[in-house]
Amino acid sequence: MIRLRIGGVPEHYNLPWHMARKSGALQAQGIKPEWTDFYEGTGGMIQAIKNDELDVAVLLTEGAISGISRSANYKIVSFYTDSPIIWGIHVPAASDITDVNEIYHHRYAISRYGSGSHLMPYVHARAKDWPVHKLQFRVINNLDGARMAFREEQADVFFWEKFTTKPYVDSGEFRRIGECPTPWSCFVVVASHQTLTLHADKVKILLKETFQQAQQLYQDPDRVNIIAQQFDLLPEDVEEWLSYTRWSEHIDLKKDVLIETTDTLKDLGLVYQKFDPKKLYHEFD
């Protein structure tokens, strides 16, 4: 059996991985899948791959590209989704900020540098024609860290996936003052250089089984209740989320999307100008 250590955020997007892991199909093909939840998000998983604590991870597209451009030791092996993620723009409930146009001079809570919560404020600021070099950040590690930073008045604004934070909006702890969709498909799967050298065939099997489980879930007439119960979400929120979310149906590198996203990150100063997008991905035989 080949052990593959897989990481992802503990969110509804990743249910197909758990289904694949529990189906027995991977074990039947000589793979022992081990899943770890990363509350720290993309930045935490990039560090875990560097530390040889993960073999495969589900990363935000922009974070994955940014990491590779800074010599991270992994390659993109496929897009995981064919749709954007909708980032909620949050402030503390008692904040005097009422409009997204007021957030620019305030402190942004981010899980880590290089994470989606760090990169998306740049994307948002550029769309607003704000000078991105003046953005202020406070590292808070994870969602609970953001809640604490808000309570202790250490940060003022927080970008995070809107349905993951919705319970805190509904409870009155956060206020969501706007939304910011990624301008590209939001998640990719990456594998470490060592894993691809030794076990590329197993990674390919892992991807195919996970995509198959994703399609089965999407076609399940009870999919809304399955997701809502497992991730403690309201059925109506799951219904809305599914209305714009699509998992990939097969291994797909979407090279044009990778190039477009890389160019955007170059424009934002988050990827150096001479970086070659061909360094981003691994193509299976």
What features would you describe in this structure?
- With 285 residues, this protein is of the alpha/beta class.
- The chain has eleven helices and ten strands.
- The strands form two sheets. The protein has a five-stranded mixed β-sheet with strand order 2-1-3-10-4, with helices on both faces. It has a five-stranded mixed β-sheet with strand order 7-6-8-5-9, sandwiched between helices.
Chain-wise SSE layout:
Elements: E1 2-8, H1 15-23, H2 25-28, E2 31-37, H3 41-50, E3 56-60, H4 61-69, E4 74-79, E5 86-92, E6 107-110, H5 116-127, E7 136-139, H6 143-151, E8 157-161, H7 162-170, E9 174-181, E10 187-192, H8 193-219, H9 223-231, H10 235-244, H11 255-267
Parallel strand pairs: 1-2, 1-3, 6-7, 6-8
Antiparallel strand pairs: 3-10, 4-10, 5-8, 5-9
The number of helical segments is 11
CATH architecture label of the largest domain: 3-Layer(aba) Sandwich
> How do the SSEs run, as a string of H and E?
EHHEHEHEEEHEHEHEEHHHH
Distance between the termini: 22 Å
